[in-house]
Structure formats: structure tokens, C-alpha cells
């Protein structure tokens, strides 16, 4: 039997009653280094993301692999902009993929919901996120967009009630974020619902040095940029 969820109130301009989860467990092979430590004009990319996104949420959880927790902990401020608390969730293994990163973050979340985004997605749009949040239904356990016919697991909302299904999927050897979707109630946000919003740029990531240069232009940030 699938659980039914209570719908949190949505108040314009207020925090969403959810945790911001920044997934940073990947190796970034196409970029030439771990994107978690990508520096843009003297600031880490996650710092740029915190500056923009942290004030929308109740807390921030940085989800990282075991080898990155030490270096990251020495860099994180005590709180994000607006005084939003920051905590670190650590994967149990480097080899379990992004689904393990989501699992560790959901296990740490103090809110009933988490908004998961990759550490290489600096252009997430507030209007798009809030629109997705507003489409939550009582049965929702995942809220994700479908773009070009494909579900987008980042960025998306996940209920902490997904944890049993996530654990089950990992135990079966699943690594993909969408690998447990068939076990839970997924609210799909179609492009038609987002058409008046800047939704395409909201889902853009940084996979190559060219991507980074393009995103810098869109952010209005100036080079230099380096992999630390």
C-alpha cells in the first residue's frame, strides 16, 4: 500500500518547508576533476548555488562521498546566506552512485521533503521550483518534471517517505535516481505547466569546460575559472 502525504502550505515569498540537497558525489571525469570543488571567479560553484538557493529552504544538506567530506567540511561556512543551517550527509560508499547520495540526504533531512539538485546546476530558477512545489498532491512522494518526454530526477522534490523504496532499490544494485520511481507515487510536472517560466535553463548542468563557460555567461560571472 502506498502512503498518502499531507500537503505543506505554500506561501508566496516564504521558505518552502523542505531541505535543499546539493548532490556532490560524482567524479566529474568529463570536466577533469570533481565538480564539487569547481571554482568560478574565486568562488566554488556550490557557493554560488548557496547564495542563490539557500534562502528558499529551511536547511541545506551537502551530500558527498567519503573521500570528500574532510576537504568540504573545512570549506563550508557555519550557515548559508540568510542564516540557513548547513549539514553534510556522507555516502556509505563511493561506488553506489547518485541514488546513494539521495539516500544519505533523505536520512539526514529534518524536513519531510528534500529538493535535490546537482552541484553543477547553478541556474536553478526560483519560479520553476516554487511552481513544482505548488503542484504537490496528497499522494505525492516524488515531484519531477518531464522534459522532451524524459523524467528529470534533478532537480526534483523527494519525500523522506521514499527512503524504504530507495534502500530497496540500492539493495537490488540500482544506482540511478529514477530506479525506485515505480515503487512510489510520482507527480509528473509536464512542460505545459512550466511554459511561461524560464524552465529550460533551470535544468542545465555543467559537464564540460565549454558548459562552464556558457553558464558563466548566463550567470554574469567573469573568468577566471579553474578546477581546484
From TrEMBL:
<feature type="binding site">
    <location>
        <begin position="23"/>
        <end position="25"/>
    </location>
    <ligand>
        <name>GTP</name>
    </ligand>
</feature>
<keyword id="KW-0342">GTP-binding</keyword>
<feature type="binding site">
    <location>
        <position position="120"/>
    </location>
    <ligand>
        <name>Mg(2+)</name>
    </ligand>
</feature>
<dbReference type="InterPro" id="IPR025877">
    <property type="entry name" value="MobA-like_NTP_Trfase"/>
</dbReference>
<comment type="similarity">
    <text>Belongs to the MobA family.</text>
</comment>
<feature type="binding site">
    <location>
        <position position="35"/>
    </location>
    <ligand>
        <name>GTP</name>
    </ligand>
</feature>
<feature type="binding site">
    <location>
        <position position="120"/>
    </location>
    <ligand>
        <name>GTP</name>
    </ligand>
</feature>
<dbReference type="InterPro" id="IPR013482">
    <property type="entry name" value="Molybde_CF_guanTrfase"/>
</dbReference>
<dbReference type="GO" id="GO:0005525">
    <property type="term" value="F:GTP binding"/>
</dbReference>
<dbReference type="GO" id="GO:0006777">
    <property type="term" value="P:Mo-molybdopterin cofactor biosynthetic process"/>
</dbReference>
<keyword id="KW-0963">Cytoplasm</keyword>
<comment type="function">
    <text>Transfers a GMP moiety from GTP to Mo-molybdopterin (Mo-MPT) cofactor (Moco or molybdenum cofactor) to form Mo-molybdopterin guanine dinucleotide (Mo-MGD) cofactor.</text>
</comment>
<dbReference type="GO" id="GO:0005737">
    <property type="term" value="C:cytoplasm"/>
</dbReference>
<keyword id="KW-0808">Transferase</keyword>
<keyword id="KW-0479">Metal-binding</keyword>
<protein>
    <recommendedName>
        <fullName>Probable molybdenum cofactor guanylyltransferase</fullName>
        <ecNumber>2.7.7.77</ecNumber>
    </recommendedName>
</protein>
<dbReference type="GO" id="GO:0061603">
    <property type="term" value="F:molybdenum cofactor guanylyltransferase activity"/>
</dbReference>
<dbReference type="Pfam" id="PF12804">
    <property type="entry name" value="NTP_transf_3"/>
</dbReference>
<dbReference type="InterPro" id="IPR029044">
    <property type="entry name" value="Nucleotide-diphossugar_trans"/>
</dbReference>
<keyword id="KW-0547">Nucleotide-binding</keyword>
<feature type="domain" description="MobA-like NTP transferase">
    <location>
        <begin position="21"/>
        <end position="181"/>
    </location>
</feature>
<keyword id="KW-0501">Molybdenum cofactor biosynthesis</keyword>
<dbReference type="GO" id="GO:0046872">
    <property type="term" value="F:metal ion binding"/>
</dbReference>
<keyword id="KW-0460">Magnesium</keyword>
